[in-house]
Amino acid sequence: MKHKHGKSTSSVDRNSPVVISKAILVCLLCGVSFYLGGIYCSSRNNEEHDIGIEDRLAVPGPVRVPISFPECSLDLQDYTPCTDPQRWKKFSLYRLTFLERHCPPTFEKLECLVPPPEGYKLPIRWPKSRDECWYRNVPYDWINTQKSNQRWLKKEGEKFLFPGGGTMFPNGVSQYVYLMQELIPEMKDGTVRTAIDTGCGVASWGGDLLDHGILTISVAPRDNHEAQVQFALERGIPAMLGVISTQRLPFPSHSFDLAHCSRCLIPWTEFGGIYLFEIHRILRPGGFWVLSGPPVNYEHRWRGWNTTIEEQRTDYEKLQRLLASLCFDLYSKKDDIAVWRKSSDAACYKRISSPESYPPKCDDGMEPDAAWYVPMRPCIVHPDPKYKKLGLETSPKWPVRLHTPPDRLSELHVGSGGFRIDDAMWMKRVERYRKLLPAIGTNEIRNVMDMNTLYGGFAAALIGYPLWVMNVVSGYASNSLPIVFDRGLIGTYHDWCEAFSTYPRTYDLLHLDGLLTAESHRCEMKHVMLEMDRILRPNGYALIRESSYFVDAIRTLATGMRWNCRKEDPGDDGDSKEKIIICKKKLWQFSKQSSR
Asked: Is the pLDDT of residue 45 over 80?
């Protein structure tokens, strides 16, 4: 036979022991050579490259080479990657699709530190922050000019002041809430605990409800009102970017006790009523939907709405018919406020389940809790009759519900014993955290995020302190977010391979419990850490509980983001392989020009 280069070779039996032995020897020598070469190349790369960290969590390994992330350009001071106005033109105007989440692909992700605005100061502390914030922290003049006559806010010297006004409550939000409580007595006795405000303005309604023991998520898009959500979070009021458009809101079914729209300009009866279908999905049986503004009280208000009384009467009657088809009953009405209540009566849902009914019942293939990039459908999610305590009338009142095992634990195949063990564990862990981070429980920490909660145990253990917690559950993990809401806490679905729906500098404390380990097969550590830096306030804290395998990589990245970190033992309840890393973000000012 001939060699591939044309040289003759002797013919040898391929099955000869000599040939087989030589083949094995050659394979061994090649393997050793490949191994040694790999080590040599690896060491060369670590010496020659500025960033020698294994970026992927799947292979974090020991990290020895320091990293320094550059500053982003100053025009990115309020950068929201997944709701970036610079990308709006790429998406449809239909049903405001362009305002939904549209995250950049991995190769377009920025690997820089988002700077604060020029003149940024540490935020005013709670509870004073509810009434005022530094102008330079949220330097938006448009909303001040357009909404100051409605007493949303007003600029006075170096500060924005929040008088508590609104489009539909010119006499102040406290009087508005008082009237609402008269219409809904359940707001006063612990029956109503969780609420959602769609189109929230500067979240004065949600801020006032905190005095009444009601925890509200204020939701608004990044739109021409500029920074509604940023104002809310700067004030220390729960809020997130979001819009009712074509995708489901990132919440499970039957979550909120009350939903509110104060002239939010959502066209509730258009597109077949699909926006109200979504409100129906996220509202608990027995929950309330409150509408103030058009077409409510059209008899006295129509002249100011640039319309006719006939048009407004038609809109109101159409709204009434639509709500009736969804098993909503008009509960109470006075002046500009109308309240409907979602029925808990199984007979109503049975009546609207007939094939000829509109809207139809969602089929079994439409998971009621699926809400991460799930399109809204023109169908109705019916309450599951097996959950006897899902309805507002039958579930425990606040604060008893916080530590009561919810019915929906059965979906996770967890009993009440497992729930109580988790509850006790987090009470013990938070006690340890407070010793390691004394700022917890003081006005230094107001806005808190548990980046990968299970049942909301961390938030429950903090309930007595002057703070609130956004509980985050991965859209790809076990669906435990319904448990969080059933306890009277708030949260959202999210995927940490992407940016969170908030502005920069909006949280005082970020808590992680094994998040980086859990997402090691999907997300790059540096992108998760850079997102944490984006949403963390200067002088804010990250409390990271992770496998010791990732500790060096985390600390190296944190140092590159100008954080100061220290390592601590988890205490008696911790896994011997776990460590706690406590980091504090440094306050720095923009110092150089940088391109996007």
From this structure: no
Tokens of 218: 């204020």
CA-nearest of 570, 525, 480 to 57 is 525
Q: Is 74 helix (H, G, I), strand (E, B) or coil?
A: helix
Comparing 141 with 472, the larger pLDDT belongs to 472
Sheet holding 491-494, edge to edge: 491-494, 468-474, 447-450, 507-513, 536-547, 578-585, 563-568
What whole-number distance in Å separates Cα of residue 77 and Cα of residue 51? 25
- Strand-pair category, 159-161 with 491-494: unpaired
- Would residue 326 be called left, alpha or beta, if left means φ above 0 and alpha means ψ between -120 and 50 degrees? alpha
Residue 524, amino acid: E
- Judge whether 352 and 320 are in contact, CB under 8 Å: no
166-210 confidence digits (pLDDT tens): 778 878 899 999 999 999 999 999 999 999 999 878 899 999 999
CB proximity list for 330: less than 8 A, separation 6 or greater = 320, 323, 338, 339, 340
Q: Which amino acid is at 198?
A: T
Distance from C-alpha of 277 to C-alpha of 360, rounded to nearest angstrom: 11
Q: Would you place residue 225 in the very low, low, confident or very high pLDDT band (cuts 50, 70, 90)?
A: low
Place of tokens 């000019």: 145
The enclosing H or E element of 497 equals: none
Angle, helices 525-535/551-560, rounded to nearest 10 degrees: 50
pLDDT in tens, 287-304: 999 999 899 988 888 877
Across the strands, what pairs with 198?
A: 219
CA pair distance 491, 596, nearest whole angstrom: 32
